[in-house]
Amino acid sequence: MGKRKMWQLLAALLTLGMIAAACGDSSGDGTTGDTAGEATTTTVELAQADGSLLDTIKSRGSLICGVSGSATAFSETQADGTTTGFDADYCRAVAAAITGSADNVQFVSLTASQRFTSLAAGDVDVLFRNTTWTQSRDTDLGGDFGPTTYYDGQQLMGRVSDGFSAASGVSDIDGATVCTSAGTTTEKNVAEAASLEGDGFGGINLTTFEAFDDAVDSFISGSCDILTTDGSGLVGRKAVQQPADQEWVIFPATPISKEPLGPMYRQNDSLFADVVNWTVYATIIADEKGVTSANIGSVDPEAEPELGRLLGLGDDEIQTKMGLSADAFHNVISQVGNYDEIYSRNLNPVGLVRDGSANARWTEGGLIYAPPAR
Ligand SMILES: N[C@@H](CCC(=O)N[C@@H](CS)C(=O)NCC(=O)O)C(=O)O
Fold first, then answer.
1. Looking at the domain assignment, is residue 372 inside a domain?
2. For residue 224, which of 42, 104, 210, 219 is within the disulfide window of CB 3.0 to 4.6 Å?
3. Which sign, positive or negative, has the C-alpha torsion 6, 65, 210, 189?
4. pLDDT band at 50 (very low <50, low <70, confident <90, very high)
5. Total structural domains in the chain?
């Protein structure tokens, strides 16, 4: 644990009165005898009693995963109550790694502004919710981030009938009513980009909504000139919600921000972090090696020793070192699939393709890369 994080943890314990309570002051008058030794011992016990979230999830038997529930192709609550999408599948993957079954997930739908409070309160174990890894979220909000699962960037969407085209840019939204959801990087980025436009740019009318669905409805009705969010969200909404009498266009071609999306969990739980991170890496390594949910049964550990280790097919597996069963990632790939399967089945239908994007494999010019399973 880094010094800063250690002090944050200590500060949190002091705030909760946990250290005081643990110091064995049974007299009730605030005096204790040999406090130093007791305090040290008891603090360690507290840390052990708290343990890792991994143990809690194992004994609960399911993962509680925070998602959007209304992010097209990423996490959508269906009429039958199930949750589908790229983010939802990553929740399933972590559940499969920890519990042995991808079905052992409780999905909790959260708006953008609810998500961090909910995570901090322990209402959810992890967020897979279109969440951008930023410096302040990583350092100031008590969170940690796992590997980026989708490299995104913020764009704008307007109507062709209003004069917007793929060649439009921020300079073309002068005076526009720009709509998005509250509690996002999106609102900050677009305000900052507008403020950086030179003299002669009058500004934008930024309107934020608690639910992104309401921002989209206002865009459809014409109350908003521009809808803005992560490019993937715009592509998804255009694919499923563009009315027959409107033509929407997404711009600029180069996004106005970087939005690396991935899992976020509470800080200072290295074991749980390892499990989430290596679950994501397992899907990426399987993709690199061409192992899918369909062909995993024919992996030869002698010919492919890295896969043998990762899938628990030999004696030299490493999963039990992180509190998982040896076949944890075998369960992930066989039940949920590799990165490409997860990407393709959820994102291709709305027109998001890996080829030529930052989400291509590193061997094909993209950024999807995992450390070795060794
Ligand atoms: N990646 C950005 C934005 C995430 C976000 O929540 N975006 C909006 C628009 S895609 C949202 O509410 N998404 C869920 C939805 O589409 O309902 C962040 O982490 O702040």
1. no
2. 219
3. positive
4. low
5. 3
Atom 14 of ligand 1, residue of closest alpha carbon: 71
Do residue 199 and residue 348 come from a single domain?
A: no
Please give the distance, rounded to the nearest whole angstrom, from the Cα atom of residue 315 to the centre of ligand 1.
Answer: 43
The answer to whether residue 103 is domain-embedded is yes
Q: Does 115 share its domain with 210?
A: no
Establish if 373 belongs to a structural domain.
no
Residue nearest to atom 12 of ligand 1 (CA): 212
Query: pTM above 0.70?
Result: yes
* pLDDT at residue 9, as a whole number: 39
Q: Is 65 helix (H, G, I), strand (E, B) or coil?
A: strand
Residue 353 reports pLDDT greater than 60: yes
- Compute, in angstroms, the gap from residue 296 CA to the centroid of ligand 1: 34
Range of the domain at 18: 3-50
Residue of minimum CA distance from atom 6 in ligand 1: 112
Q: How far is CA 42 from CA 21, 38, 39, 45, 47, in A?
A: 10, 6, 5, 5, 9
Q: Find the 33 Cα to ligand 1 centroid distance in Å.
A: 54
Same domain, 77 and 170: no
Range from 19-33, 89-103, 209-223, 233-247 carrying the lowest mean pLDDT: 19-33
133 within ligand 1 shell (Cβ under 6 A): no
The reply to whether 286 and 340 lie within a common domain is: yes
Same domain, 39 and 170: no
- Residue 130 Cβ inside 6 Å of ligand 1? The answer reads yes
- Ligand 1 atom with least separation from CA of 69: 17
For residue 24, pLDDT over 70 is answered with: no
Per residue in 220-265, pLDDT (tens digit) is 999 999 999 999 999 999 999 999 999 999 999 999 999 999 999 9
Q: What is the DSSP string of 107-164?
A: EEE--TTTHHHHHHHTS-SEE-SS-B--HHHHHTSSEEE---SEEE-EEEEEEGGGT-
Angle between helices 86-99 and 53-60 (to 10 degrees): 90
Q: Are 263 and 275 in contact (CB under 8 A)?
A: no
Nearest residue (by CA) to ligand 1, atom 11, is: 212
